[in-house]
Specification:
By secondary structure, this protein is an alpha/beta fold. The chain is 40% helix and 18% strand. The protein has helices at 21-41, 62-69, 88-102, 125-142, 197-207, 225-239, 255-264, 269-288, 307-314, 330-340, 343-346, 366-372, 377-386, and strands spanning 8-13, 47-51, 54-58, 75-84, 107-114, 148-149, 156-162, 167-170, 174-175, 188-191, 212-218, 249-253, 293-294, 321-322, 389-391. The radius of gyration is 26 Å and the shape is elongated. The two termini are 37 Å apart. Bound molecules: adenosine-5'-triphosphate and magnesium ion.
Amino acid sequence: MELPEADCVLVRHGEIGHKSEQVRRAMEERLATNLEAILTDRGIDGTVERQRTRLFVHTDEPGEATAAATDAFGVVSASPVIQVEPALDRICESLADVAGVCFDGGSFAIDARRAGPESAHEFSSKDIESNGGAAVWQTLEDAGFDPVVDLDDPDATFYVECRPDRAYVFTETRPGPGGLPVGTQEPVVVLLSGGIDSPVAAWKMLRRGCPVVPVYVDLGTYGGPDHQARAVATAEDLVTYAPNFEFDLRIASGGEMVERLAETVEETRMLSLRRFMLAVGEQTASSVDAVGIVTGEAIGQKSSQTSANLRVTDIAVDYPVFRPNLTEDKAEITNLARDIGTFEESTIPTGCNRVAPSLPETKATLEAVRAQEPDDLFEQAREVADRAEVVEI
Ligand code: ATP
Ligand code: MG
């Protein structure tokens, strides 16, 4: 049901409300700033108003603004709303108007809630529901419907949120991503291959408030321009969720090391390559003041990602390695990639060569990995990280 004459979007957040007063304020402010940035980035006119536990976007484009708000991390849901004076008769009138335009038969219900001190209104939420229900019923009957109230499973629900200084009438609530506003946590480096998994991992870290610094390791003859272009394209998708944060992609030259590993290391080749990449991530993290390294790995998804092998790769660095996809099935990660819009770029064919050996180790020991690994692996990693090319996103 599209709501006619909506001129505002009511934006709800969740976890922020459980924080201490001081933290809550700072996070609400951050959310408002991020929301303004998304609106501007998408060319949507709107001003953001902050109230306790809610944000409001005043706009002539409520549909577009609601879509933008439900992409902002920290937002639990958003509704296009009509604003009315917080008086019972005005609310009932508005409900009847909305029902007159939106209703197309079947049963209906009114769902009202009141916020603020008891003294703020001379009526209760139950009063809104019963008086509003009667007003809607009358309008629908006058319009030739045979209206039925069904509180359990209505075909249409008309919602009211009545606050001390204004009331809001609406017909839908669209879910947002939840999480925390980007910028309320310290940044992390993301090893972004441009495949399906790592853009999803980056999105999940953004969702918990961490700005991300993407790093792509160029695989030389094993990768190629299309492989790199995929990483750039997914970074461009991700920045739309946090356009006020820097997203420049660092490209480190890993081609030489990949070739050396392919020539000299057999079963544990991929583990040494991951260790190299983590070390590139660590060097980058220390240079940009990030606090951890993120990968798209999930337990057992590939031989390099068995629970035993993850230990051997983790040990390569002192920084924590965050793996937000750790316990997810590939299908779940793929579904999320589709939802967040990175799937298409992630699946562009790249024609790159296979680095993995035909019989990879699935239960490596650190000793076995070290025995085959080039002595200068970490030194090289630090060097290529320091020389990384920076691509503006
Ligand atoms: P993804 O896992 O991102 O879908 P993939 O399947 O090509 O890509 P994996 O072999 O599963 O890569 O690699 C595991 C993780 O290592 C990736 O999720 C990513 O975080 C990191 N990684 C792999 N290749 C690269 C690369 N060329 N540059 C940066 N990070 C990489
Ligand atoms: Mg993967």
